[in-house]
Specification:
Helix content is 31%, strand content 25%. It has three domains: 102 residues, MurE/MurF, N-terminal domain (Udp-n-acetylmuramoylalanyl-d-glutamate--2,6- Diaminopimelate Ligase, Chain: A, domain 1), CATH 3.40.1390.10; 234 residues, UDP-N-acetylmuramoyl-L-alanine:D-glutamate ligase, CATH 3.40.1190; 151 residues, Mur ligase, C-terminal domain (Protein-Tyrosine Phosphatase, Chain A). The radius of gyration is 25 Å and the shape is globular. The relative contact order is 0.08. The longest helix has 14 residues. With 502 residues, it is an alpha/beta fold. The chain is built from 16 helices and 26 strands.
């Protein structure tokens, strides 16, 4: 699948020392994969700088090296050091360059797909799954790249991070095209935007769900302004921007965007036409152990719909999906069916165990997420709200105190158990959670083994209860002393029910 260097560099600003008609045999950004005839893109990470391997790339006969113009390791080559037959390319940002080169290497697969990118603090995972479910219901084969998994239409791959490296994105796009996909929906994280992982192509649709302080720290964003600024980047690299206009940061995110704009939001009546797509008459639904929300829409789509997920925020997730799918001329029946049937692994995932009580799995693994979830579930006025959770080892102790306190305040019963203890003793972690819960009057029990804790929850369930298994979500393992052991809560629930003949 060789390309000339000139073909790969199309659309990128660069300076070159050597022949741009050089044939490239492979595209590499991992220094361990440098080989004769490759184009090696030097990426600088937090712990390792690929530019330090320029000499090795030259010695191994790389056809080209793409380096950052200002990098210290590249200076000697800019000043005339011998590179043999290796062509040197200098550009401002090699992460951006990798996006452009990768897109060209795979013959621009994004141009053969309708590309949908969803960004925001919350709701990305659920919204991407909703979009895919609706489009698939309408007969439009759709790939997915997200926090939980990548689905290329030919295979499903567990995800390592929300937005993969640009080379992998283009490789997945290429596989989607070859498997017959017509569209792809993907989560676009602030980190992915900051690191130019979606460089090299233009999204057909960019969607903003919401924004709140998150991912701020030494290895992520320096402050909230940086976080917001990175989110904005999506709307300078998409054709149509679709925005949640109810979010307090809508004006900040949309300011200066270069795409055409559409909005969605909620109204208390069907008379408000402030948005391109409006939801109104929302109502909570609690039937047969399942929690959801019914609502109507007007504007770009007129629907009488139901989403089988609890909470008012579920309406916004649904609006996100509807606002995208109307651009694909999807009929109302496919939208309604998709909203009703979608299941997102580990995101308010309800298990059909009983008509008398509700049991769900959710990824809430910090105090903010747990608080939001439990406040939402209180809206359904459960008989009792029962929360089962643990905390990860080798992580902040503050998180344990905070989660214990949140659960103690908002749950009628907390079942403290083990999560991923990693290299810590499970009972030490549990003791920290207990410290937090003791600041409240909340009732709690300690059941260290997670399966036994789930069994306790089921054995002691009462009619009207809402039981939350929090923290593990989509994960199917438990990490103990550096070893990942298979553990899927869905399987544990099934085993407990089977053992009781239920």
């Amino acid at each position: 699948m060789g390309r000339t260097l000139k073909e790969l560099l199309t659309g990128l600003e660069y300076k070159i020392s050597g022949n741009d008609e050089t044939e490239i045999g492979s595209l590499v950004y991992d220094s361990r994969k440098i080989e004769k005839g490759c184009a090696f893109v030097c990426i600088k990470g937090s712990a390792f700088d690929g530019h330090s391997k320029i000499k090795e790339a030259v010695e191994k006969g790389a056809a080209a090296v793409i380096a950052e113009d200002s990098n210290e390791f590249a200076a000697e080559y800019k000043n005339g050091a011998d590179t043999g037959s290796t062509v040197m390319v200098y550009t401002e940002d090699t992460r951006k360059a990798l996006g452009f080169l990768s897109a060209a290497w795979f013959d621009h697969p994004a141009e053969k797909l309708k590309t949908i990118g969803i960004t925001g603090t919350k709701g990305k995972t659920t919204s991407t799954c909703l979009v895919r479910e609706i489009l698939e219901n309408a007969g439009i084969k759709t790939g997915l790249i997200g926090t939980i998994e990548i689905n290329t239409g030919a295979r499903v791959i567990p995800a390592l991070n929300t937005t993969p490296e640009s080379y992998l994105i283009q490789e997945y796009f290429d596989e989607m095209v070859r498997s017959g996909c017509k569209a792809v929906v993907m989560e676009v994280s602030s980190q992915g935007l900051m690191m130019n992982r979606v460089a090299g192509f233009t999204f057909d649709y960019g969607i903003f769900t919401n924004l709140s302080p998150d991912h701020i720290g030494p290895n992520e964003h320096k402050d909230f302004d940086d976080y917001l600024s990175c989110k904005k980047k999506l709307f300078s690299s998409c054709r149509i921007g679709i925005f949640n206009a109810d979010d307090p940061y809508f004006e900040n995110i949309s300011e200066g965007c270069t795409c055409s704009m559409e909005t969605f939001g909620r109204s208390n009546s069907g008379a408000d036409m402030s948005y391109d797509l409006t939801a109104y008459d929302a109502g909570l639904v609690n039937t047969g152990g399942m929690l959801g929300v019914s609502f109507k829409t007007m504007g770009l789509a007129e629907l009488d719909a139901f989403i089988d997920m609890p909470g008012s925020f579920s309406v916004y997730n649904a609006l996100t999906a509807i606002a995208v799918c109307v651009h694909f001329n999807v009929d109302n029946e496919a939208i309604i069916k998709g909203l009703k049937n979608v299941k997102v692994k580990g995101r308010i995932e309800m298990l059909d165990v009983s008509d008398e009580y509700t049991l769900m799995i959710d990824y809430a693994h910090n105090a903010m997420a747990l608080n939001s979830l439990l406040v939402t579930l209180h809206e359904y006025e459960p008989g009792r709200l029962v929360t089962l959770f643990g905390c990860g080892g080798n992580r902040s102790r503050e998180r344990r105190f905070e989660m214990g306190e949140v659960s103690g305040k908002l749950s009628d019963l907390t079942i403290i158990t083990s999560d991923n203890p990693r290299n810590e003793e499970p009972m030490d972690i549990i003791a920290d959670i207990e410290t937090g819960i003791k600041k409240t009057d909340g009732e709690y029990v300690i059941v260290p083994d997670r399966k036994e804790a789930i069994a306790y929850a089921i054995d002691n369930a009462k009619p009207g209860d809402v039981i939350v298994l929090a923290g593990k979500g989509h994960e199917d393992y438990q990490e103990i002393k550096g070893v990942k052991h298979h553990m899927d809560e869905r399987e544990l629930v099934a085993q407990v029910l089977a053992e009781r003949g239920m």
